[in-house]
């Protein structure tokens, strides 16, 4: 049985742990709000980018250029590997966040009937590596996640450099497709893994962009060659897609951390309640024993006590 002093020390330690958990909850909620604002801003950016695609594709139609001609999107190899970029985490206390993502990547490869020799893999976040190794994923390289949105552009530039090596510049063992695998936030505590094809661009989507009515009386004008301009818009599309995946992953990571901290806080409250009840019971027993000792001593010293 614990003594009153040991129980008091345990209660103090658990109360300190509860304060840490509450701080982690607050930080996760603040981060989620930050990434939600970034996601809203990306919607406006995406709308502007779609207008750019629409303008260029309609300009190509007005110029009577065949839309079925190859678009300047790289070599678009028929033979080659599939590139997978996974977005995990660099920090812990987020439950099964990384394990679920690695398992989803494995299922994706199985559904596409890809063996380890058929794909190259890059991960964002060190915490993802042990799960990838346990599932025998072939690993290419690892990138560190930024601590805030301010460091995101640097990560995106590094990922764009990798995509250039994989898709646009590779001469041997080229990458024919690139997919992004990340968690998509559903709410403050819910998220799910998704797979998005980054390259090559969906030609059906491009066709729909070209067929979409232009919401203006002035037709789009193009100053300069069409192909380099379109390549620049594609570059912005890649940047936006990678930025969105990073923001969604970071929002989901904090959602997972918030859910973990909520579960931890609930367990701490239950444990603390049991310890405090035990402490009160032992303290009451100790007081009762002291009172009994006082009464017994008084009766022993009372000269008028009946024999």
Largest sheet: 5 strands, mixed
Number of domains: 2
The arrangement of helices and strands along the chain is HEHEHEHEEHH
- Which sequence of strands runs across the widest sheet? 3-2-1-4-5
CATH third-tier fold name of the largest domain: Pyruvate Kinase, Chain: A, domain 1
Strand content: 5-15%
Given as residue ranges, the uncertain stretches (5+ residues, pLDDT < 50) are: 64-70
| Structural class by helix and strand composition | alpha/beta
What's the CATH H-level homologous superfamily of the largest domain? ATP synthase, F1 complex, gamma subunit
Q: Using DSSP, what is the number of strands?
A: 5
Q: Calculate Rg over CA atoms.
A: 31 Å
Distance between the termini: 38 Å
How many distinct helices? 6
Helix content: 55-70%
Mean pLDDT: 84
What does this structure look like?
There is one protein chain. With 307 residues, the chain is α/β, with parallel strands linked by helices. It has two domains: 57 residues, Helix Hairpins; 208 residues, Pyruvate Kinase, Chain: A, domain 1, CATH 3.40.1380. It contains six helices and five strands. A five-stranded mixed sheet has the order 3-2-1-4-5. The protein is elongated and about 120 Å long. It starts with a helix and ends in a 6-residue tail after the last helix. About 2% of the residues have low confidence.
């Amino acid at each position: 049985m614990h003594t009153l002093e040991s129980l008091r020390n345990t209660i103090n330690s658990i109360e300190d742990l509860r304060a840490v958990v509450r701080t982690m909850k607050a930080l996760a909620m603040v981060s989620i709000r930050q990434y939600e604002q970034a996601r809203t801003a990306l919607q406006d950016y995406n709308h502007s980018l779609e207008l750019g695609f629409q303008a260029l594709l309609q300009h190509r139609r007005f110029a009577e250029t065949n839309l079925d001609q190859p678009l300047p999107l790289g070599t678009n190899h028929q033979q080659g590997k599939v590139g997978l970029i996974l977005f995990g985490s660099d920090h812990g206390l987020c439950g099964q966040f990384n394990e679920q993502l690695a398992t989803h990547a494995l299922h994706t490869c199985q559904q596409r009937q890809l063996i380890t020799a058929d794909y190259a893999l890059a991960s964002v976040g060190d915490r993802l590596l042990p799960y990838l190794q346990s599932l025998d994923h072939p690993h290419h390289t690892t990138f560190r996640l930024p601590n805030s949105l301010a460091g995101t552009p640097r990560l995106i530039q590094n990922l764009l450099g990798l995509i250039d090596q994989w898709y646009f510049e590779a001469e041997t063992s080229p990458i024919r497709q690139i997919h992004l695998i990340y968690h998509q936030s559903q709410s403050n505590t819910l998220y799910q893994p998704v797979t998005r094809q980054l390259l090559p661009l969906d030609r059906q989507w491009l066709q729909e962009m070209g067929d979409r009515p232009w919401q203006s009386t002035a037709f789009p004008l193009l100053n300069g060659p069409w192909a380099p301009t379109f390549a620049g818009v594609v570059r912005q599309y890649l940047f936006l897609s990678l930025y969105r995946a990073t923001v969604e992953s970071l929002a989901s990571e904090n959602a997972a951390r918030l859910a973990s901290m909520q579960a931890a806080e609930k367990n701490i409250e239950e444990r603390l309640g049991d310890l405090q009840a035990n402490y009160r019971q032992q303290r009451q027993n100790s007081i009762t024993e002291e009172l009994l000792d006082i009464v017994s001593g008084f009766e022993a010293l009372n000269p008028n006590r009946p024999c």
